[in-house]
Amino acid sequence: MTWKPSAFYAPALTVAGLLSLAGTAVGVPETWTLAWMAVLLPLLALVARWSPVRSGALAGALGLMAVTVWPVPLIWADGSWLEVCGAAAFWALPALGALAAGAHLRRQAGRVRHAVREARRDQQLELARDLHDFVAHDVSAIVVQAQAARFVAAQDPQQAVRALERIEAAGLSALESMDRTVHALQEAAGGPAAPVPGLARLAELVDRFEGGTLDADPQALGELSREADTTAYRVAVEALTNVRRHAPGSAVVRVALRRARGGIELSVANSPAPRGGSGLLARRRRSGTGLAGLRGRVEAAGGTLEAGAGADGGWRVRAVFPARERALG
User: Model pTM?
Assistant: First the structure.
């Protein structure tokens, strides 16, 4: 059992207050009583800072009374009521000041604890979004390729081998995403941070997506801030993941990165899924909230996000990010 000094502050103040009141009642010399105030005032501050509310309130009231009334017997015989009240009020001020100082420190500590809890909650949400954005994409790729391998294994073993190779690549990518999550946890504990992927890996991402094509302006890559760069990559990952989940078998999936009037535009568009599509992903319930979460990320990076049906009946996700001023000049 851990010994906590704070558990003894309220009992110590209670005993000190009772001793002070008893000394005041029996007429202990004022030199000793005044010295005793140097014990009571710090105890009042410590109780207000550390003690539980119930026991601290009782001990604080007793200590406040002890500090307030100690000069009363010295003035009672020759002084007026006004002088007695004035002396009591004068000594109540440092006692109330000690209580206020302790209460202020207690309130500040509570705010710090609340801020730490909020920071941990935000970090947990960040890790959950990372898992959703990256691992879900790779896992859905594994499922799609496994389905394809199962259907073509008998007729075309070579296609099945290629599907297994893609499964291997997607599995390695999922492991890399898990490593980044572990590194993020280590960073929270003071360890080194792991880099978050950006648009430099967009070509690799699209290449792993069967049927995907990429049209990227190389100069547009250098015109995004680091935050916008990583956020744009997350948008591409989420959009491609949703194609696998909700439109499996789309004949065309186009990813484009270009300059636009509003800045730098990233778009992911897919053709309609074939009717009667089957498979595990086609039968899954739509339970993801990825694009809703990404909208907040995109807006935090200064951009905008749109998602909706395309002219051909497919689906299109479009994000526009502001270009860096130095690049535009």
Answer: 0.51
